[in-house]
């Protein structure tokens, strides 16, 4: 090839590359990135609004000035005023420029307040700053491998308790338990129940108060979480419940429980398969394993239309997967997928597996599992 021919070939390749570049697509993506930045900022401010009670307070107020809102919430006016700037420019709060009064529309409050019957989306905004607090350590893991340990995630149990309070607590007795035929009647009569990865124990405490004839045990790796669960049981004078700190990988109990539950806990484990085998052994022959876990596929392309797919993969990468890898575990992550979960359950002795979805919970599946004949 001559120099002239080589030059002509390069020019043609460059022209072809220029022709293939879609400026409209590039501009649209750039606009999308601006939206991502604004959305991230609004997530932080939404978390602040939730934690300070500003959304709850504003929902109960008439149109008010920043000073009136700050006074009603018991907060510093200067910070409230700047927060309101984000809320107004982000379209969450409305401002009447003629009188300087701010309003949280009722339709917005329905997704931002603790009293909302629709579910408080502001609860989930707390995951963004929570995960951001370990970003440096996660970046280091990208380079060196390994993981970030559970104890590095401050406030995690507090946020998870609020999360499960919306997906589990309100639906536990009338929608979730009835997925397992006959289990409510057995709980009323009196059976032995274990909650795996019980966290702060809100679900287990509710069950113990609702079914006083049954006996309840909660295991979790976190001593702090166990302490909160125990404190709640003492506060309510619940005598049919006990909590214990335990590494579930080493759970060694045989035919002891009639019902074992795991709410959003199995995929975080160091060795999920080992834990599932231990659960199978710990159940009595006619026992039931009720597992709540993330509604997703193990294949990325099947999750493209998932309404909160990016959020769930982010939570998985920056918490669920990494806490498992920090223990030299499997690192399945939250998005291990229904296919993987079903296959692993069956491999570990649960030949009777039924998967349910509930209308109030777009992020989870509910697995009802029993030993085969």
From TrEMBL:
GO terms for biological process, alphabetical: methylation
Residues in S-adenosylmethionine-dependent methyltransferase Rv2258c-like winged HTH domain copies: 40-114
Name of this chain's protein: SAM-dependent methyltransferase
InterPro entries assigned to the protein according to its UniProt record, in alphabetical order: Methyltranfer_dom (IPR025714), SAM-binding_MTase (IPR053173), SAM-dependent_MTases_sf (IPR029063), WH-like_DNA-bd_sf (IPR036388), WH_DNA-bd_sf (IPR036390), WHD_Rv2258c (IPR048711)
Organism: Azospirillum rugosum
Keyword terms, alphabetized: Methyltransferase, Transferase
Molecular function, one GO term: methyltransferase activity
Gene3D superfamilies, alphabetized: Vaccinia Virus protein VP39, Winged helix-like DNA-binding domain superfamily/Winged helix DNA-binding domain
Domain Methyltransferase: 188-295
A matching Pfam family: WHD_Rv2258c
């Amino acid at each position: 090839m001559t120099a002239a021919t080589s030059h002509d070939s390069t020019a043609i390749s460059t022209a072809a590359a220029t022709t293939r570049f879609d400026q409209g697509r590039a501009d649209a993506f750039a606009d999308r990135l601006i939206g991502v930045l604004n959305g991230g900022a609004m997530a932080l401010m939404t978390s602040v609004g939730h934690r300070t009670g500003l959304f709850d307070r504003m929902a109960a107020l008439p149109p008010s000035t920043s000073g009136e809102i700050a006074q009603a919430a018991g907060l510093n006016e200067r910070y409230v005023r700047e927060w309101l700037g984000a809320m107004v420019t982000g379209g969450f709060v409305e401002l009447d420029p003629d009188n300087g009064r701010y309003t949280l529309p009722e339709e917005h409050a329905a997704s931002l307040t603790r009293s909302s019957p629709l579910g408080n989306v502001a609860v989930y905004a707390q995951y963004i700053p929570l995960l951001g607090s370990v970003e440096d350590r996660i970046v280091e893991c990208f380079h060196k491998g390994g993981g970030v340990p559970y104890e590095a995630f401050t406030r995690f149990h507090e946020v998870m308790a609020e999360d499960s309070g919306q997906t589990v607590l309100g639906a536990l007795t009338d929608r979730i338990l009835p997925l397992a035929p006959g289990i409510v009647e057995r709980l009323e009569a009196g059976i032995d129940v274990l909650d795996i990865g019980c966290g702060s124990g809100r679900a287990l405490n509710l069950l113990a108060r609702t079914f006083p004839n049954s006996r309840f045990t909660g295991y979790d790796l976190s001593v702090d979480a166990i302490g909160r669960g125990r404190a709640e049981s003492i506060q309510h004078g619940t005598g049919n419940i006990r909590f214990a700190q335990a590494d579930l990988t080493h759970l060694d109990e045989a035919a002891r429980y009639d019902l074992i539950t795991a709410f959003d806990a199995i995929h975080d484990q160091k060795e999920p398969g080992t834990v599932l085998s231990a659960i199978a052994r710990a159940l009595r022959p006619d026992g039931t394993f009720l597992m709540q876990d993330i509604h997703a596929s193990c294949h990325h392309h099947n999750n493209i239309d998932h309404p909160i797919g990016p959020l769930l993969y982010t939570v998985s990468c920056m918490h669920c997967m990494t806490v498992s890898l920090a223990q030299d575990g499997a690192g399945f992550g939250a998005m291990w997928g229904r296919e993987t979960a079903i296959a692993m359950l069956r491999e570990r002795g649960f030949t009777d597996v039924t998967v349910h979805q509930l209308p109030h919970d777009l992020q989870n599946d509910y697995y009802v599992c029993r030993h085969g004949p």
